[in-house]
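Key result, reporting period 2: structure in, sequence out.
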Protein backbone atom coordinates (compact mmCIF):
# COMPACT_ATOMS: atom_id res chain seq x y z
CA UNK A 1 0.00 0.00 0.00
CA UNK A 2 1.52 3.38 -0.96
CA UNK A 3 2.37 5.83 1.83
CA UNK A 4 -0.29 8.41 2.61
CA UNK A 5 0.44 11.88 1.29
CA UNK A 6 -0.46 14.69 3.70
CA UNK A 7 -0.20 18.45 3.24
CA UNK A 8 -0.14 20.69 6.31
CA UNK A 9 -0.63 24.42 5.75
CA UNK A 10 0.90 26.74 8.34
CA UNK A 11 4.31 26.97 9.99
CA UNK A 12 3.25 28.37 13.36
CA UNK A 13 3.23 26.37 16.57
CA UNK A 14 -0.09 24.64 15.81
CA UNK A 15 0.80 23.63 12.26
CA UNK A 16 4.24 22.36 13.21
CA UNK A 17 2.97 20.49 16.26
CA UNK A 18 0.17 18.94 14.20
CA UNK A 19 2.65 17.75 11.57
CA UNK A 20 4.92 16.38 14.31
CA UNK A 21 2.06 14.47 15.97
CA UNK A 22 0.80 13.12 12.63
CA UNK A 23 4.23 11.69 11.85
CA UNK A 24 4.31 10.11 15.31
CA UNK A 25 1.02 8.36 14.55
CA UNK A 26 1.71 7.68 10.87
CA UNK A 27 5.44 6.98 10.51
CA UNK A 28 6.32 6.69 6.87
CA UNK A 29 3.66 9.14 5.73
CA UNK A 30 4.79 11.54 3.01
CA UNK A 31 4.06 14.76 4.86
CA UNK A 32 4.78 18.23 3.52
CA UNK A 33 4.30 21.38 5.59
CA UNK A 34 3.84 24.60 3.61
CA UNK A 35 4.76 27.95 5.19
CA UNK A 36 4.41 31.15 3.20
CA UNK A 37 7.08 33.12 5.09
CA UNK A 38 10.87 32.84 5.00
CA UNK A 39 10.95 31.16 8.41
CA UNK A 40 8.61 29.36 10.80
CA UNK A 41 6.82 31.14 13.67
CA UNK A 42 6.68 34.38 11.68
CA UNK A 43 3.36 35.70 12.98
CA UNK A 44 1.29 34.88 16.09
CA UNK A 45 3.71 32.34 17.55
CA UNK A 46 6.80 34.49 17.12
CA UNK A 47 5.25 37.78 18.24
CA UNK A 48 3.47 36.80 21.44
CA UNK A 49 4.54 37.42 25.03
CA UNK A 50 6.35 34.09 25.41
CA UNK A 51 4.11 32.96 28.27
CA UNK A 52 3.19 29.31 28.80
CA UNK A 53 -0.47 29.56 29.84
CA UNK A 54 -1.54 26.74 32.13
CA UNK A 55 -5.32 26.85 31.54
CA UNK A 56 -6.39 28.87 34.57
CA UNK A 57 -9.26 30.99 33.23
CA UNK A 58 -10.96 28.70 30.74
CA UNK A 59 -14.39 27.25 31.43
CA UNK A 60 -14.01 23.65 32.61
CA UNK A 61 -14.89 21.13 29.92
CA UNK A 62 -13.97 23.36 26.99
CA UNK A 63 -11.29 22.42 24.50
CA UNK A 64 -9.19 25.36 25.71
CA UNK A 65 -9.26 24.17 29.32
CA UNK A 66 -8.58 20.56 28.44
CA UNK A 67 -5.86 21.16 25.87
CA UNK A 68 -4.13 24.04 27.67
CA UNK A 69 -3.53 22.07 30.85
CA UNK A 70 -2.37 18.97 28.97
CA UNK A 71 -0.42 21.01 26.45
CA UNK A 72 1.32 23.04 29.15
CA UNK A 73 2.75 19.91 30.72
CA UNK A 74 3.62 18.39 27.36
CA UNK A 75 5.43 21.57 26.34
CA UNK A 76 7.53 21.55 29.51
CA UNK A 77 8.52 17.93 28.89
CA UNK A 78 9.32 18.75 25.25
CA UNK A 79 11.53 21.69 26.28
CA UNK A 80 13.33 19.57 28.86
CA UNK A 81 13.96 16.82 26.33
CA UNK A 82 15.31 19.16 23.65
CA UNK A 83 17.11 21.76 25.75
CA UNK A 84 14.79 24.66 24.88
CA UNK A 85 14.99 27.67 27.23
CA UNK A 86 11.97 27.82 29.55
CA UNK A 87 11.15 28.61 33.17
CA UNK A 88 8.11 27.58 35.21
CA UNK A 89 8.26 30.73 37.31
CA UNK A 90 4.60 31.09 38.30
CA UNK A 91 2.43 34.20 38.13
CA UNK A 92 0.25 36.43 40.27
CA UNK A 93 -3.24 37.52 39.21
CA UNK A 94 -3.86 40.70 41.19
CA UNK A 95 -7.25 42.10 42.23
CA UNK A 96 -6.98 45.87 42.57
CA UNK A 97 -10.70 46.62 43.17
CA UNK A 98 -13.30 45.08 45.50
CA UNK A 99 -15.51 43.99 42.57
CA UNK A 100 -12.64 41.81 41.30
CA UNK A 101 -12.42 39.69 44.46
CA UNK A 102 -15.31 37.36 43.52
CA UNK A 103 -13.70 36.88 40.10
CA UNK A 104 -10.44 35.94 41.79
CA UNK A 105 -12.31 33.23 43.70
CA UNK A 106 -13.92 32.10 40.45
CA UNK A 107 -10.48 31.78 38.84
CA UNK A 108 -9.32 29.66 41.77
CA UNK A 109 -12.31 27.36 41.33
CA UNK A 110 -11.91 27.14 37.56
CA UNK A 111 -8.19 26.42 37.76
CA UNK A 112 -8.76 23.73 40.38
CA UNK A 113 -11.50 22.15 38.25
CA UNK A 114 -9.12 22.18 35.29
CA UNK A 115 -6.54 20.21 37.26
CA UNK A 116 -4.04 22.90 38.24
CA UNK A 117 -2.04 22.38 41.41
CA UNK A 118 -0.91 24.71 44.19
CA UNK A 119 -3.33 27.59 43.58
CA UNK A 120 -3.83 29.93 46.52
CA UNK A 121 -5.28 33.36 47.19
CA UNK A 122 -2.81 35.68 48.90
CA UNK A 123 -3.57 38.67 51.16
CA UNK A 124 -1.76 41.97 50.42
CA UNK A 125 1.21 41.30 52.68
CA UNK A 126 1.90 37.94 51.01
CA UNK A 127 1.75 39.43 47.52
CA UNK A 128 5.03 41.14 48.32
CA UNK A 129 6.70 37.82 49.15
CA UNK A 130 6.53 37.03 45.43
CA UNK A 131 6.46 40.49 43.86
CA UNK A 132 7.84 43.10 46.29
CA UNK A 133 6.65 46.06 44.20
CA UNK A 134 3.17 44.77 43.32
CA UNK A 135 0.08 45.98 45.15
CA UNK A 136 -3.51 44.79 45.38
CA UNK A 137 -6.36 43.77 47.66
CA UNK A 138 -5.53 40.11 47.03
CA UNK A 139 -3.82 37.96 44.43
CA UNK A 140 -4.11 34.45 43.09
CA UNK A 141 -0.78 32.66 43.08
CA UNK A 142 -0.48 30.31 40.07
CA UNK A 143 2.64 28.14 40.36
CA UNK A 144 2.08 26.29 37.06
CA UNK A 145 2.73 29.16 34.69
CA UNK A 146 5.93 29.98 32.89
CA UNK A 147 7.85 31.48 30.00
CA UNK A 148 9.47 29.88 26.98
CA UNK A 149 11.27 30.61 23.72
CA UNK A 150 8.49 29.84 21.23
CA UNK A 151 10.58 30.42 18.09
CA UNK A 152 13.05 27.83 19.44
CA UNK A 153 10.15 25.43 20.04
CA UNK A 154 9.06 25.85 16.42
CA UNK A 155 12.55 25.51 15.00
CA UNK A 156 12.97 22.28 16.97
CA UNK A 157 9.64 20.95 15.71
CA UNK A 158 10.65 21.75 12.13
CA UNK A 159 13.91 19.82 12.56
CA UNK A 160 12.08 16.84 14.06
CA UNK A 161 9.55 16.81 11.22
CA UNK A 162 12.35 16.63 8.67
CA UNK A 163 14.21 14.03 10.74
CA UNK A 164 11.00 11.98 10.71
CA UNK A 165 10.83 12.00 6.93
CA UNK A 166 8.62 15.05 6.43
CA UNK A 167 9.38 18.24 4.53
CA UNK A 168 9.07 21.88 5.62
CA UNK A 169 8.78 24.10 2.56
CA UNK A 170 9.24 27.83 3.14
CA UNK A 171 8.15 30.75 0.95
CA UNK A 172 5.29 28.53 -0.20
CA UNK A 173 2.20 30.72 -0.05
CA UNK A 174 -0.88 28.76 -1.15
CA UNK A 175 -2.56 30.52 -4.07
CA UNK A 176 -5.15 27.88 -4.98
CA UNK A 177 -6.47 24.84 -3.16
CA UNK A 178 -8.95 22.29 -4.49
CA UNK A 179 -9.97 18.65 -4.66
CA UNK A 180 -9.29 16.81 -7.91
CA UNK A 181 -11.02 13.49 -7.52
CA UNK A 182 -9.58 12.06 -4.31
CA UNK A 183 -6.49 14.29 -4.31
CA UNK A 184 -5.89 17.70 -2.80
CA UNK A 185 -4.02 20.11 -5.07
CA UNK A 186 -2.19 23.02 -3.45
CA UNK A 187 -0.81 25.52 -5.94
CA UNK A 188 1.91 27.57 -4.27
CA UNK A 189 4.79 29.92 -4.97
CA UNK A 190 7.02 26.83 -4.83
CA UNK A 191 4.98 24.77 -7.27
CA UNK A 192 2.13 22.29 -7.04
CA UNK A 193 1.75 19.86 -4.14
CA UNK A 194 -0.54 16.83 -4.40
CA UNK A 195 -1.77 14.91 -1.37
CA UNK A 196 -4.44 12.54 -0.11
CA UNK A 197 -5.26 14.56 3.01
CA UNK A 198 -5.15 18.21 4.01
CA UNK A 199 -4.56 19.82 7.40
CA UNK A 200 -4.94 23.61 7.56
CA UNK A 201 -3.51 25.51 10.54
CA UNK A 202 -3.33 28.92 8.91
CA UNK A 203 -3.85 31.18 11.92
CA UNK A 204 -4.47 34.71 10.69
CA UNK A 205 -5.49 33.31 7.30
CA UNK A 206 -7.53 30.37 8.61
CA UNK A 207 -10.90 31.53 7.25
CA UNK A 208 -9.45 32.32 3.82
CA UNK A 209 -7.74 28.95 3.52
CA UNK A 210 -10.97 27.22 4.56
CA UNK A 211 -12.92 29.11 1.88
CA UNK A 212 -10.18 28.35 -0.65
CA UNK A 213 -10.73 24.68 0.16
CA UNK A 214 -14.45 25.03 -0.59
CA UNK A 215 -15.79 25.53 2.93
CA UNK A 216 -18.61 28.02 3.53
CA UNK A 217 -17.94 28.68 7.21
CA UNK A 218 -19.55 31.80 8.65
CA UNK A 219 -16.55 32.39 10.92
CA UNK A 220 -14.40 35.40 10.01
CA UNK A 221 -10.94 36.09 11.36
CA UNK A 222 -10.80 39.62 12.78
CA UNK A 223 -7.25 40.70 13.67
CA UNK A 224 -6.55 42.52 16.93
CA UNK A 225 -3.18 44.18 17.40
CA UNK A 226 -1.54 44.17 20.82
CA UNK A 227 1.16 46.75 21.55
CA UNK A 228 3.96 46.09 24.01
CA UNK A 229 6.32 48.26 26.00
CA UNK A 230 9.37 47.12 27.89
CA UNK A 231 10.75 48.39 31.17
CA UNK A 232 14.04 50.22 30.84
CA UNK A 233 16.89 48.09 32.23
CA UNK A 234 17.33 50.27 35.32
CA UNK A 235 13.67 49.64 36.29
CA UNK A 236 13.45 45.91 35.61
CA UNK A 237 13.82 45.24 39.34
CA UNK A 238 10.16 46.27 39.74
CA UNK A 239 8.98 42.91 38.35
CA UNK A 240 10.31 39.46 39.14
CA UNK A 241 8.18 37.23 36.94
CA UNK A 242 4.55 37.51 35.71
CA UNK A 243 1.95 39.93 37.10
CA UNK A 244 -1.57 39.93 35.61
CA UNK A 245 -4.78 41.82 36.38
CA UNK A 246 -8.10 40.10 36.91
CA UNK A 247 -9.48 39.97 33.37
CA UNK A 248 -12.87 41.38 32.44
CA UNK A 249 -15.05 38.31 31.76
CA UNK A 250 -17.02 40.25 29.12
CA UNK A 251 -13.91 40.78 27.00
CA UNK A 252 -11.70 38.01 25.56
CA UNK A 253 -8.34 39.62 26.31
CA UNK A 254 -6.33 39.43 29.51
CA UNK A 255 -5.57 43.13 30.00
CA UNK A 256 -2.12 44.70 30.10
CA UNK A 257 0.28 42.79 32.31
CA UNK A 258 3.97 42.34 33.10
CA UNK A 259 6.02 39.48 31.68
CA UNK A 260 9.62 38.51 32.31
CA UNK A 261 10.99 37.39 28.96
CA UNK A 262 12.98 34.19 28.54
CA UNK A 263 15.69 36.08 26.63
CA UNK A 264 15.86 38.83 29.24
CA UNK A 265 13.95 41.99 30.02
CA UNK A 266 10.45 42.81 31.24
CA UNK A 267 7.61 43.46 28.79
CA UNK A 268 4.35 45.23 29.58
CA UNK A 269 1.17 44.76 27.55
CA UNK A 270 -0.53 43.99 25.31
CA UNK A 271 -3.61 46.11 24.77
CA UNK A 272 -6.09 45.03 22.08
CA UNK A 273 -7.20 47.18 19.13
CA UNK A 274 -8.60 46.36 15.71
CA UNK A 275 -5.88 45.99 13.09
CA UNK A 276 -6.47 46.95 9.48
CA UNK A 277 -3.74 44.53 8.38
CA UNK A 278 -3.75 40.88 9.42
CA UNK A 279 0.02 40.78 9.38
CA UNK A 280 0.82 44.44 10.06
CA UNK A 281 2.56 45.18 13.33
CA UNK A 282 2.55 48.98 13.44
CA UNK A 283 -0.27 51.32 14.48
CA UNK A 284 -0.52 52.66 10.92
CA UNK A 285 -0.33 49.29 9.11
CA UNK A 286 -2.99 49.03 6.41
CA UNK A 287 -3.78 46.31 3.88
CA UNK A 288 -6.73 47.03 1.56
CA UNK A 289 -8.08 43.47 1.43
CA UNK A 290 -7.71 42.96 5.16
CA UNK A 291 -9.34 46.30 5.96
CA UNK A 292 -12.26 45.58 3.62
CA UNK A 293 -12.76 42.07 5.05
CA UNK A 294 -12.96 43.46 8.58
CA UNK A 295 -14.97 46.63 7.95
CA UNK A 296 -17.48 44.96 5.62
CA UNK A 297 -18.17 42.20 8.14
CA UNK A 298 -21.43 42.83 10.06
CA UNK A 299 -20.13 40.88 13.03
CA UNK A 300 -17.40 43.44 13.68
CA UNK A 301 -19.88 46.32 13.93
CA UNK A 302 -22.13 44.33 16.23
CA UNK A 303 -19.11 43.51 18.41
CA UNK A 304 -18.04 47.17 18.53
CA UNK A 305 -21.57 48.29 19.41
CA UNK A 306 -21.69 45.76 22.25
CA UNK A 307 -18.32 46.88 23.67
CA UNK A 308 -18.18 50.60 22.87
CA UNK A 309 -16.59 51.70 26.13
CA UNK A 310 -13.98 48.94 26.21
CA UNK A 311 -13.00 49.40 22.55
CA UNK A 312 -12.68 53.18 22.93
CA UNK A 313 -10.56 52.74 26.04
CA UNK A 314 -8.26 50.28 24.26
CA UNK A 315 -7.90 52.60 21.26
CA UNK A 316 -7.02 55.62 23.43
CA UNK A 317 -4.50 53.59 25.40
CA UNK A 318 -2.89 52.45 22.13
CA UNK A 319 -1.92 56.04 21.33
CA UNK A 320 -1.10 57.24 24.86
CA UNK A 321 1.85 55.99 26.86
CA UNK A 322 0.48 57.83 29.89
CA UNK A 323 -2.81 55.90 29.75
CA UNK A 324 -0.93 52.65 29.17
CA UNK A 325 1.18 53.39 32.23
CA UNK A 326 -1.88 54.14 34.38
CA UNK A 327 -3.20 50.67 33.66
CA UNK A 328 0.13 49.18 34.68
CA UNK A 329 0.17 51.22 37.89
CA UNK A 330 -2.86 49.31 39.17
CA UNK A 331 -0.48 46.35 39.42
CA UNK A 332 2.86 48.03 40.20
CA UNK A 333 2.28 51.59 41.49
CA UNK A 334 5.94 52.63 41.19
CA UNK A 335 6.01 52.29 37.41
CA UNK A 336 6.25 55.68 35.68
CA UNK A 337 5.68 56.69 32.08
CA UNK A 338 9.39 57.38 31.65
CA UNK A 339 10.17 53.77 32.61
CA UNK A 340 8.56 52.47 29.40
CA UNK A 341 9.99 52.15 25.91
CA UNK A 342 8.28 50.66 22.82
CA UNK A 343 8.75 46.93 22.30
CA UNK A 344 6.84 45.92 19.17
CA UNK A 345 3.44 44.32 18.76
CA UNK A 346 1.63 41.09 18.05
CA UNK A 347 -1.56 40.25 16.15
CA UNK A 348 -4.24 37.96 17.58
CA UNK A 349 -6.34 36.02 15.06
CA UNK A 350 -9.76 36.18 16.69
CA UNK A 351 -12.58 34.25 15.05
CA UNK A 352 -15.92 36.07 15.07
CA UNK A 353 -19.44 35.13 13.97
CA UNK A 354 -21.82 37.39 12.00
CA UNK A 355 -23.79 38.22 15.16
CA UNK A 356 -20.67 39.80 16.70
CA UNK A 357 -19.92 36.93 19.03
CA UNK A 358 -16.29 36.02 19.56
CA UNK A 359 -15.52 32.33 19.18
CA UNK A 360 -14.05 31.71 22.61
CA UNK A 361 -13.03 28.08 22.28
CA UNK A 362 -10.68 26.36 19.88
CA UNK A 363 -12.64 25.48 16.74
CA UNK A 364 -11.95 22.53 14.41
CA UNK A 365 -13.73 21.66 11.18
CA UNK A 366 -13.42 18.11 9.89
CA UNK A 367 -14.43 17.36 6.33
CA UNK A 368 -13.77 14.59 3.83
CA UNK A 369 -9.99 14.24 3.65
CA UNK A 370 -9.43 17.53 5.50
CA UNK A 371 -9.08 19.00 9.00
CA UNK A 372 -9.20 22.77 9.48
CA UNK A 373 -8.17 24.58 12.67
CA UNK A 374 -10.47 27.60 12.38
CA UNK A 375 -9.81 29.28 15.72
CA UNK A 376 -6.64 28.89 17.74
CA UNK A 377 -5.73 32.10 19.56
CA UNK A 378 -3.98 32.13 22.95
CA UNK A 379 -3.28 29.69 24.58
CA UNK A 380 -2.75 27.79 21.32
CA UNK A 381 1.04 28.16 21.36
CA UNK A 382 1.17 26.65 24.85
CA UNK A 383 -1.31 23.93 23.91
CA UNK A 384 0.19 23.23 20.47
CA UNK A 385 1.36 19.68 21.19
CA UNK A 386 -2.03 18.74 22.65
CA UNK A 387 -3.84 20.46 19.76
CA UNK A 388 -1.57 18.50 17.43
CA UNK A 389 -2.72 15.28 19.08
CA UNK A 390 -6.34 16.33 18.52
CA UNK A 391 -5.71 17.14 14.87
CA UNK A 392 -3.82 13.88 14.33
CA UNK A 393 -6.65 11.88 15.93
CA UNK A 394 -9.27 13.57 13.71
CA UNK A 395 -7.14 12.89 10.64
CA UNK A 396 -6.56 9.25 11.54
CA UNK A 397 -10.31 8.66 11.86
CA UNK A 398 -10.54 9.48 8.16
CA UNK A 399 -7.56 7.34 7.20
CA UNK A 400 -8.97 4.15 8.71
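The corresponding designed sequence is given below.
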Amino acid sequence: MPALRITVIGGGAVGLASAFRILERLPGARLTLLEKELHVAAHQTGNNSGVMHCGLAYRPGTAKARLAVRGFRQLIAFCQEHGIPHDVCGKLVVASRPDQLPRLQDLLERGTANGLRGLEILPPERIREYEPHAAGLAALRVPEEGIVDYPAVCETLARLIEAGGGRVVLSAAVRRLYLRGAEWIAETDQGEFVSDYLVACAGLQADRVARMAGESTEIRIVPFRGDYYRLKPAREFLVRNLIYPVADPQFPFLGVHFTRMIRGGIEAGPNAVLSLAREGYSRTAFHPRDAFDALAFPGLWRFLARHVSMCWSELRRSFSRDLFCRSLQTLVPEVQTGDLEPAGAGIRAQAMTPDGRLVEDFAFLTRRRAVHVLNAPSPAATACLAIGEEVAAQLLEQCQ
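The chain has three domains: 5-46+151-219+360-399, 91-141, 220-358. The chain is about 30% helix and 25% strand. This case is discussed further under Risks and Mitigation.
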